[in-house]
Amino acid sequence: MRIWWVVPMGILFALPLFFRGYYIYVIDLVGIYVVIGLGLNLLTGYCGQLSLGHAAFFALGAFTSAYLTIGGVPFLVALPAAGAAGAVMAYLVGIPVLRLRLIFLAISTVGLGIITHDVLYNLKGFTGGADGMTVPKPKLGPLVFKSDESFFYIVAVVVIFLSFLLGNITRTKAGRAFLAIRESERAATAAGIDVPRYKMLAFVISAFYTGVAGGLYAHLTAYINVTAFDILLSVTFLSMIIIGGVASIPGSILGAIFVVVVPEALRDVPGAKDIQALVYGLLMGFFIIFLPGGLVSGFSRLKGIFKK
Amino acid sequence: MILQVIMSGIAIGAIYALLALGIVLIFKTTLVLNFAHGEVAMLTTLFAYSIIVSLGFPYWVGVIGALVLGGILGILSDLLVRPLLNAPLLSMVGLTIAMFFVIHAIGGIFWGYQTWPFPNPFPEKAVDLGGLVVSPIHLFIIFVLLVLGGVLFAVLNFTTVGTAFRATCQDRRAALLMGISSNRVFAISWAAGCALGAISGILIAPIIHVQVNMMVVILLKAFAAAVLGGILSLPGAIVGGVVLGVVENIFSFYCGTEFQDSIAFLIIILVLLVRPQGILGSPVEIKV
Fold first, then answer.
1. Which residue range(s) make up the domain with A149?
2. Residue A300 located in a structural domain
3. Which H or E element spans position A140?
4. pTM for this one?
5. What is the DSSP letter of A134?
6. Could you tell me which residues of chain B have a Cβ less than 8 Å from any Cβ in chain A?
7. If you placed Cys at A86, which of A53, A57, B86, B130 could pair as Cys (CB 3.0 to 4.6 Å)?
8. How far is it, in rounded angstroms, from Cα A95 to Cα B259?
9. What are the extents of the domains in chain B?
10. What tens digit of pLDDT does each residue of A199-247 get?
11. Is residue A96 part of a domain?
12. Structural domain tally of chain A?
């Protein structure tokens, strides 16, 4: 059965041959959002902790990778370092914050996002403030990944690797612990699960993923600006999970596709910004009301209809 | 000098408190944190602007129009949210966020993104109160806040509706058993909450001018204020708003305005850690 993987893999790696320029840029962006979706799905979908501040980790990862590569650190090191930066920040922040439940956690993550945004914005010398900063293109040894097409391969490898990693994590004891915590923290504690430790683990892993995505983003766009990493971005990340499907890897992928493609597809419509937001909001609301399990559950339902 | 800073802080805080009141009012019964509250305030204010400035009706007609629109939006929100009351938190948060996008977009589509000055029913000149300088509109906001607080108190404690409201907040099932219709209480909460939002918007508009993005940042502060005062406490919303405004102002007076927003949220996080029920809240027991 394993041999069947060759076909979708082959198609995946051949994509840059068929999609060029703008389209491959969008696909790259989708890949980056998939990484975020994977991480956030672990935290919110599997473990049930709501975060509205993940743009903070994204920003941190972006600037970390940017500065490291400018400083001559090889890309292969800078990218995981970007993830690590996010992870460290999550650890420090998580110690106090993860004690909070439900809506209070959500509000404090909002605070986290805003504080990070403010701090980074005001560190003008470091982040360029409202002007942003340029980021060099990644190099792997002698190869420079100048084009969006070549960058696709980096994104694809990262996405595949991190998806498998996530899939494995969910199948371990930790994965089951996350689910138990989502369903009922008290019951999980009663069953002997070290809830604070696993909550922190989910938080840190999701921050790592988001940091890596931030690093990828910095190198894809070759220019990063703090003002883009705001609460609206965090909300977009979360909506990815809601629309795609919680606790599901295909859900993260579908969510990422939706979140990137819908605004881009509506870009040329007159009144674009508003139409984007309107359609986005309406679709999001539609999914929440009628398809709370996200697009993924819609597909399972369709499958169920056809099986009859 | 410090007294002036505090006075200005109270003035700003009153704005946060007004919005926070609406948020808490809706949250107490329905347990829904309406992330779209600010947008409702914005839309009703834009509507009032059109009535007063574009159509030339007197100020009070605009106010009534805004209140009516607020009530309608509230009831619509209630109907929209009701099927999801037992859904996981993520759905609820997501739905109000979706509402945020939709209402925001409606504002942008019908009114565009310019900024307009909103008619100020009071003279612009600041008033001197024994050494402290305050502008009349700020004073009026504080006044309205206190009046609303009193009205809410009276309604909640001395009317049937108020008792039904309080009963539903305390224990919805028991209230149902006593014959109190949750649906009706929810509808009233939503309508009243959004109407409060409309009032907030109209009062704030002369100060920050009318535009589609006017409420976004203020709303976050209002949430912070609500949490600070106790998310389930109406007097807490007032107290939390004022405290937040004062602390924020003192901080920016001594340390500059760059980190003003951060300080607000830092306070919130600290409060949540030390006393999650807020200043005036009673300890919250979350069911397993």
1. 2-230
2. no
3. strand A139-140
4. 0.87
5. E
6. 33, 80, 83-84, 87-91, 93-95, 97-102, 104-106, 108-109, 220, 223-224, 227, 231, 258-259, 261-262, 265-266, 268-269, 272-273, 276, 286, 288
7. A57
8. 23
9. 2-214
10. 999 999 999 999 999 999 998 888 888 888 888 899 889 888 888 888 7
11. yes
12. 1
